[in-house]
Design a protein that fits this description.
By secondary structure, the chain is an all-alpha fold. The chain has helices at residues 2-11, 15-18, 26-159, 162-183. The chain has a domain at 28-129. The radius of gyration is 68 Å and the shape is rod-shaped. It is a single-pass membrane protein.
Length: 184
């Protein structure tokens, strides 16, 4: 036992044991305390930090995957929109070409119908002129005939007797009736 007590007594003679107490050197104590705290944090916090970094890495990878999927969907939509645009442009060009040809066709139809209408009007005009000429000629004939008839009747009345006068009148009435049938 003496050895055990000697070892405790011997502790009192250690030079570092004599300075065991409050260390007033702030820089030395802070450095030691800081290194102990960092060591404890690294030892115990390595798992937590690793889990946090792994979670962050997974979130970043998921975000990248999602953005890639969104990008691919956007590219698909863009291609679909371009295809629809090409289709609409093609249809618009067809409508434009068809519209131009339809306009030209309608223009030609209108010109042709106008020419036909003008031809018909010209024919109607010519028929009307011919009809009016015939009517005027017939009126002139009737007047000339009436005047000639009146002149002949006047001459006959002064030269003829009653019996001859009646026969002449009957003959003239017959000729006049025949002329009216011809003009009608």
């Amino acid at each position: 036992m003496k050895n055990v007590t000697d070892s405790f007594v011997f502790l009192g003679h250690w030079p570092s044991a004599e300075s065991f107490g409050v260390n007033t050197d702030i820089l030395a104590t802070n450095l030691i305390n800081l290194s102990v705290v960092i060591g404890v944090l690294i030892f115990f916090g390595k798992g937590v930090l690793s889990d946090l970094l792994d979670n962050r890495k997974q979130r970043i990878l998921n975000t990248i995957r999602n953005s890639e999927e969104l990008r691919e969907r956007a590219i698909e939509r863009l291609e679909q929109a371009r295809a629809r645009l090409r289709k609409v442009e093609t249809e618009a060009n067809q409508f434009r070409v068809n519209g131009y040809s339809e306009i030209e066709r309608e223009k030609m139809n209108l010109i042709n119908s106008t020419y036909k209408t003008l031809e018909q009007l010209e024919n109607y005009k010519n028929q009307t002129i011919h009809f009016e000429q015939q009517r005027a000629i017939n009126q002139v004939r009737q007047r000339v005939f009436q005047q000639a008839l009146q002149g002949a009747l006047g001459t006959l009345n002064s030269c003829l007797n009653n019996e001859l006068h009646l026969r002449t009148i009957n003959a003239n009435i017959g000729m006049f009736g025949a002329m009216n049938e011809i003009t009608d």
